[in-house]
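Notes to self after the Tuesday call (sharing in case useful).
The group wants a holo model before anyone commits to mutagenesis around the pocket. I volunteered. Ligand is C6P. Logging inputs and output together so the record is complete.
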Amino acid sequence: MERVYLDNNATTIVDPLVKDAMDPFFTKMYGNPNSLHSFGHEIRPYMGIALDRLYAGINADDEDNIIVNSCASEGNNTVIKSLYFDSVLNSKKTQMITSAIEHPAVSEVYEFLEKLGVDVKWLPVNSEGIVDPDELRKAIDPDKTALVSIIWANNETGLINPVKEYGKICRENGVKLHLDGVQAIGKIPVDMQDIQADYLTFSAHKFHGPKGVGGLYIRKGSSITPLIHGGEQMAGHRAGTVNTPYMIGMGLALELAVKNLEHENTEVRRLRDKLEDTILGIDEVEVIGNREMRTPNTILASFRGIEGEAFLWDLNQNGVAASTGSACSSESLESNPTFTAMNIGADLAHTGMRFSLSRYTTEDEINYAVDVIKKSVTRLRAISSTQNKEYI
Ligand code: C6P
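Result:
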């Protein structure tokens, strides 16, 4: 076996059906959908099908809005900055709430707003790695809170937050709720008629669609101020010529992801559990979070006595691709933000290794990965004990 890809929370392979569905829109039907001639007109029915698939995929109401954009980072920035412009800048509200375990596409936006003087409340996580709804209830001030942003499923641990409860609390208090749904979609059911959130963000490349396209769901009655002005595309919510091949690809990718949810929760979960059981069989290893409370594809494990970067390098040398945390913060050697939020000791925090599977992961790949991980841990621990002896 040459290589095994276990970094599907960073990005996924594009489903070949998705790639084929996108193909005609590069060289045959390439018109601008806003053009009035036939090259423009002929694209529109396909965009309609894509939108229908997006609505169905998250069970949005016909009167809700879905904005197609470039990625979830754009969606998160749009929601948070929009509520800042609309509610905080004009002094209607002064406070915004988020959690200690957000992806940087949320946490860094709030850090930026803090520098502008916004009162940002950072909700802690409990010992299980979850944002406790009671903490949210305590932090909300109906007169002051402009927005609550919380990650649905954490990208590092896979831990799933109780978003239905957040929805009820926010609704009772008349406060807008924004969910980062990137790691939930395609792994667990996402039903926007069941969850009382006002905004949901997602990226197609996390569910076997192309990179560079995402979606922002906006509930009927909620609005946004566009981040990008300059045209009437997306009903005036986001200017810029729509990336039609990618929008069409994202629609099909979401439909296929929903069709595969059963497989995700049986077969992918079985392979994940098999890998996890082996990892737990190695001495001095800890897996973060109860597996029943996590997305079915994710493991975040810490291996005492092994330095994370060295481990990643060794796994990669032997054909196994994993990650020490978010791909976008992989160049910093800081400890994993989730570990920090969960108060997990620094020596463990620096060894966090994320293994994330997908519906393309095979049993043979898991067997191979198990073998590589065991040998790598033995090798690296032997090296570190030799080095320690040299210093004595
Ligand atoms: N997380 C990871 O390795 P973009 O890059 O805009 O498509 O997605 C950003 C994003 C937002 N929210 C969550 C929960 C995410 O997991 C991500 C992407 C990847 O964990 C790449 S940094």
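Two things stood out.
DSSP finds 14 helices and twelve strands in the chain.
The chain has a mean pLDDT of 94.
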